[in-house]
């Protein structure tokens, strides 16, 4: 047996080598991801957007540069001074777009975390217990997903008022059924495997079986779902802001900026073009990463 | 008095049904087992005889639905397992009874290192620190013949035989009183089989564990066990000591099992398989379940259920033909 052959060797190099092998699953995914050009481009763009957003938020004064109205500089075309031009109140669109990244990214990520934690837990419980529990959870999810998601988000936002927290929650709640379904499906494939029964046979509790044995084994589709959903959450958030139900007025949310520029689109199209481009670029690169992750985690695609 | 203290597992009239839409399957139809401490019982029978269901019932691991334990008593060291709450069961599983599964390839969780998996079993049942549990896991690993530094590796880095060693290490990590091995070597090739059996035998003696070995390999039973119980269609049809069952075979089915083994001395001899198939478990015959295949069957066998018949203190057989005092099967008393 290989164990017996390995033991006479000095311990140090052997265990070092095995340590490298241990990371293989994560390393393998990363390697596959690196091979995917789309995903690499996506990661670069997202990294750039995040860095620019963070820098702008740290260095630019919100009251002076982002929301202060300067009548003398209103509606200027893109120039070296204002790379994206200015809006009807004379605010610099370049800075506003960069600053506004915080809302979209934050809403996107927090909303997905909200729906992941609710939907994921519901899905795991439904998938693990089956029977009546599953029926109740999944049928409730069916009812929720039969309401158009935009309508549901609008309802929640109007009912609880327009601010960023409500926006995050309403965008998150809308995707709960999707997460529950993915988590349930993936738990069901793991649930009946023998090592779960073996865990039961050594006396592991139901809670620990669900969250320490089943969850890590069903994570791959959930991770993919998370990345994919961040993109659509950003779009939903922007749409709500466009309708005036998201982040309130002076804040430079991308959707809200689109909405403001709408009436100037004939003569000053750059006012809508740049925030629109920002949304497209962000969502596109997140989706590219999501696609890449899905391919990287699919063992059937291994070459 | 002394007798009852000596008994670790006492199963009485255990009945397990699988209730499906297409009918009720009587997987286990009223069996009795009394296993002494440190003893090993071989549970033999063909596929579908109810061996695995019996083993799972001992741990209350029968998938429910559709499985239902209809009646019976399972006393482990005097405590009735069937009366325990889920919480109490969690403390018993792995601590007092543990199980070795048939296929080591799937019995280990692929996302944890083998060390973590052994340590988990220790951590669940003993109040030790994580670090201590891990150290003990390493020791267990060495005990089953795997160098301790490999505890940081994942199951996919181990061969089948080594995985089964890990499974054994997990099962024995808490000095369990009763070990149930469900065909522990079926998925392994013969050379590894011998190693794993040798290891189990050694550890069983070292830890003074009682064992139930489920297998359809009579050779393994002869090698590992003190007692044998032969199951057919959910009932134990013959049981006794190794000597009783192997050398003084009484039941026609047990005879059939021995006849279907290849004979090493006469290699050209044709195998004599038992004709026919196991009866449909949703519609067992009214009388003796083996009667349709039994070469000795009389008309009465198909009508009346045989009751346990004790030939000696240790040897039990369920066969109606023994009501005739002169009845003998061909193989009886080969020595």
Mean pLDDT of chain A: 85
Name the structural class of chain A: mainly alpha
> How many beta-strand elements of chain B?
12
Proportion of residues in helical segments of chain B: 25-40%
Query: What order do the strands of the largest sheet of chain B run in, or round the barrel if closed?
Result: 6-7-8-3-9-10-12-11
Q: How much of the polypeptide of chain A forms β-strand, as a percent range? A: under 5%
Low-confidence stretches of chain B: none
The sequence of SSEs of chain A as H and E is HHHHHHHHHHHHHHH
Cα end-to-end separation of chain A: 29 Å
List how many beta strands of chain A DSSP finds. Answer: 0
Radius of gyration of chain A: 24 Å
Report on the structure:
Helices cover 76% and strands 0% of the residues of chain A. Chain A is mainly alpha-helical and 303 residues long. Chain A is elongated. Chain B is 30% helix and 23% strand. Chain B contains eleven helices and twelve strands. In chain B, the strands form two sheets. In chain B, strands 6-7-8-3-9-10-12-11 form an eight-stranded mixed β-sheet, sandwiched between helices. A four-stranded antiparallel β-sheet of chain B has the order 2-1-4-5. Chain B has helices at residues 2-6, 51-58, 86-92, 104-107, 114-125, 130-143, 160-172, 190-207, 218-224, 242-247, 252-259; strands at residues 7-20, 23-36, 40-44, 67-76, 79-80, 97-100, 178-182, 210-215, 227-232, 235-241, 309-310, 316-317. In chain B, 47% of the residues are buried. In chain B, helix 8 links the parallel strand 7 (178-182) and strand 8. Chain B is an alpha/beta fold. The interface between A and B is large, with 30 and 42 residues.
Highlighted features:
heterodimer, A: 303 residues, mainly alpha, 15 helices, elongated, disordered N terminus, B: 335 residues, alpha/beta, eight-stranded mixed β-sheet, four-stranded antiparallel β-sheet, 11 helices, globular
């Amino acid at each position: 047996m290989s164990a017996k052959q390995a033991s006479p060797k000095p311990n140090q190099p052997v265990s070092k080598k095995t340590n490298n092998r241990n990371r293989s699953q994560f390393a393998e995914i990363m390697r596959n991801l690196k091979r995917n050009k789309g995903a690499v481009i996506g990661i670069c763009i997202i990294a750039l957007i995040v860095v620019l957003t963070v820098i702008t938020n740290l260095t630019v004064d919100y009251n002076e540069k982002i929301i202060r109205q300067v009548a003398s500089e209103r509606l200027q075309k893109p120039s070296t001074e204002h790379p994206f031009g200015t809006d009807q109140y004379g605010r610099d669109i370049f800075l506003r777009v960069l600053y506004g990244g915080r809302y979209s990214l934050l809403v996107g990520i927090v909303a997905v975390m909200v729906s992941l934690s609710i939907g994921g837990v519901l899905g795991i419980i439904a998938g693990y217990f089956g029977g009546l529990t599953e029926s109740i959870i999944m049928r409730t999810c069916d009812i929720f997903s039969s309401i158009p998601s935009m309508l549901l988000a609008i309802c929640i936002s109007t009912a609880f008022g327009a601010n960023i927290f409500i926006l995050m929650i309403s965008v998150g709640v809308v995707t709960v059924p999707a997460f529950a379904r993915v988590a349930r499906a993936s738990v069901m494939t793991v649930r009946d495997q023998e090592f779960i029964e073996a865990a039961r046979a050594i006396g592991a509790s139901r809670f620990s079986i669900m969250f320490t044995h089943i969850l890590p084994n069903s994570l791959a589709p959930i991770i993919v779902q998370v990345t994919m959903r961040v993109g659509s959450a950003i779009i939903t958030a922007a749409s709500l802001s466009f309708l005036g139900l998201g982040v309130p007025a002076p804040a430079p949310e991308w959707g809200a900026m689109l909405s403001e520029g709408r009436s100037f689109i004939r003569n000053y199209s750059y006012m809508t073009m740049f925030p629109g481009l920002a949304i497209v670029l962000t969502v596109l690169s997140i989706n590219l990463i999501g696609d890449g992750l899905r391919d990287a985690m699919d063992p059937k695609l291994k070459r | 008095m002394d007798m009852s203290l000596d008994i670790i597992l006492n199963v009485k009239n255990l009945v397990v049904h699988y209730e499906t839409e297409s009918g009720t399957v009587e997987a286990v139809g009223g069996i009795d087992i009394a296993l002494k401490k440190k003893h090993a019982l071989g549970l033999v029978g063909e596929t579908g005889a109810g061996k695995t269901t019996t083993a799972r019932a001992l741990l209350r691991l029968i998938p429910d639905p559709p499985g239902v334990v209809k009646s019976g008593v399972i006393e482990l060291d005097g405590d009735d397992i069937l009366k325990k709450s889920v919480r109490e069961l969690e403390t018993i599983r792995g601590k007092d009874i543990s199980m070795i599964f048939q296929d080591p390839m799937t019995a280990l969780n692929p996302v944890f290192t083998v060390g973590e998996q052994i340590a988990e079993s220790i951590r669940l049942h003993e109040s030790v620190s994580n670090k201590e549990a891990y150290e003990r896991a390493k020791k267990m690993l060495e005990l089953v013949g795997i160098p301790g530094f490999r505890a940081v590796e994942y199951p996919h880095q181990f061969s089948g035989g080594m995985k089964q060693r890990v499974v054994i290490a997990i099962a024995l990590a808490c000095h369990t009183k009763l070990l149930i091995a469900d065909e522990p070597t079926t998925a392994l090739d013969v050379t590894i089989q011998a190693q794993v059996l040798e290891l189990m035998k050694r550890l069983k003696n070292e830890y003074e564990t009682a064992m139930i070995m489920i297998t359809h390999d009579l050779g393994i039973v002869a090698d590992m066990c003190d007692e044998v119980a032969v199951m057919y269609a959910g009932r134990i049809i013959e049981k006794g000591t190794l000597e009783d069952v192997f050398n003084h075979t009484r039941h026609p089915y047990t005879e059939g099992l021995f006849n279907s083994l290849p004979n090493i001395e006469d290699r050209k001899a044709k195998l004599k398989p038992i004709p026919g198939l196991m009866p449909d478990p949703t519609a067992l015959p009214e009388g003796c379940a083996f009667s349709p295949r039994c070469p000795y069957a009389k008309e009465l066998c198909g009508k009346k259920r045989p009751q346990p018949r004790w030939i000696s203190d240790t040897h039990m057989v369920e066969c109606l033909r023994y009501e005739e005092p002169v009845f003998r099967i061909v193989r009886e008393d080969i020595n």
